[in-house]
Structures are given as C-alpha cells and as structure tokens.
Amino acid sequence: MATFSESNLPLVLLRSIFLASFLLTASANFYRDAEITWGDGRGKIVDGGRALMLSLDRYSGSGFQSKNEYLFGRFDLQLKLVPGNSAGTVTTFFLSSQGTGHDEIDFEFLGNSSGEPYTIHTNVYTQGKGDKEQQFHLWFDPTSAFHTYSVIWNPQRIMYVIIFLMQIQTIGRMSISDRFQLLLLYDFRFMVDNTPIRVYNNHESIGTPFPKSQPMRIRCSLWNADQWATQGGRVKTDWTKAPFVATYRNFNINGCVAGSSCGSKSTDSFNSDAWKTQDLDPIGRYRLRWVQQNHMIYNYCTDYQRFPQGVSAECKLS
Q: Is 69 an annotated catalytic residue?
C-alpha cells in the first residue's frame, strides 16, 4: 500500500504548483482587457501584454482599469508587491462603480518598514457608504514571488481569496507537525492554498445594503498614503527608495459584462461559472477560521469604541 511520506511532499507540491500556475496563466492579456488611466507613463504593459508594472515616485503614482464593467463575476490577479521598505505606499486591486452613491469592493495592500508584514485592507461600499473594514497581516512574503488575489462577487456574497505559492525550501524546513497542518490548509487537486480571508454575505433581509445593481470596473493603482497607511501614519514614505514598483500579471476575468446575459453552466470551482453560486465548503470554512483567528488585526464588527451606538446588524450573524 502506497504511503504519503514527508520526503515526497515538496516534489508533489512543485508539480502541482506548476499545474496551477499554468491554469492561471491562460488567456490573460492586459492589452485586450485593461487600459492605463493615470500616471503619465509610470504604468507600463510589458511582456507582450502578459504583465503590467505600476510605479510611484514623489511626484505621482499610477493606475489602470478594466475596459469593461461587470455585474458579478470572479476576478483573479497575480501581484508582486513593492519589496523592501514599502512604508507609506498602497497597492490596490478593487472593483468600483462611479458617482457619489457608488459601490466598491476593496482589496488594498498597505506597505510597511523592511521586515514588517504587509497589511491587507478590505472594505465594502454600498451606495456610497463603507465602514465595513477588516484587516489582516499576510503570513507569507508577497514581494518575493507572484501570488493570486481573487474577488468572487455574486448576488449572495462577496469572497476575498488568496492563492499563494510556498517555496519548496520553506516546506522542506517545516517540522512534521507543520506539514500535517499544511495538509489541512491545502487543496491537493492543485496543491496551492485557495484560502478565503473574508466572506461578506448579502443580508438585505435585515436591512443591510449589498452591492448588486451597479456594474463595476476592476481598478488597480499604486499611490502614496503615508498620512495613514503605515502604523497609523507614524512611518512616512522614504523617497530615497523611489521609484516603488508593483507588478501585476494574469489578469483573468470571468464575469458578466454589463448589459450581457450570463447563464449557469458549471459546478467545478475552477471552471467558468462556479462563481455564480460559490460558497464555502467545510475545508473553506476551516481555512477562513484559521486566517481570521491567526492573522486578522482589525474587524469593524468588534470596534465598539468607533461605533458606540452599536455595530452593524450583520455583525450579529457572522
């Protein structure tokens, strides 16, 4: 009877990481799907349309957006964040409509001093009102390799997902108990951690608005926010390290273009239409609890000082 030994885990992971990387590479093209919207030349599409680089200096940042607007979908983007001393910088990947009553789904990466972890800032705006922030410290280095960040948006819920690739050397240094923990966190179809960090459910039934009527574009940017981004604004941007550069690739959109019709076809989580009804299975719920128990650093649902009149109604259902 074959056994799964600790010695062959890194080899299996390496093969599976290759398969997952191949899957996420398919059909992504920035020339076709995106347009640089600001930055005066600081944003550049490279590698034949397969990647896009944004840069920030003391004079300006840069940004791009999707050419189409979407009403629901799954949006995947691989990103390598600003390395080294990234304090004061904010790298973003978010969805947003236009106007004062806009809807928005935020995925922002707040830089930090060298050696300190990046902070992921998430928020959901409906009809111009947000105040739904949750923040997390990343448990891996987001600057040494590309990792996939996903937003799954359907009429029932919004899911924030991270797919990160662990270096084989890191796995090799793990204790046996840590490798067993890895087994629980990893989906062994592809051996990459398809990890949900946040689920924001539709609670319109109790009076909480949910973004479901305004088409949104994917928008990405790199900009300076040293008045608040790093340690509450105490650490400022070190402009001697400029230009700061973040690189995006594998811009994959699987959604309903505004004005089009979309029909459900698939139940496979890596196939085209699973996002339309996607929810967490038991493993996904375990992963979500693990992230929130070990890496969440802020939750609007527990900030009673900020909301002395009481937190939002949906917090009581979480």
A: no
pTM over 0.85: no
Whole-number Å distance between alpha carbons of 211 and 61: 28
What pLDDT is attached to residue 163?
A: 86
Choice among 6, 35, 69, 104 that is catalytic: 104
Question: Which one is catalytic: 108, 116, 133, 204?
Answer: 108
Q: pLDDT per residue over 40-49, tens digit each?
A: 999 999 999 9
Is residue 193 within 8 Å of 132, Cβ to Cβ? no
Strands (E), the chain: 34-38, 43-46, 51-56, 62-66, 70-80, 89-96, 104-110, 119-125, 134-137, 147-153, 157-164, 193-201, 217-224, 244-257, 296-299
The residue with greater pLDDT, 188 or 193, is: 193
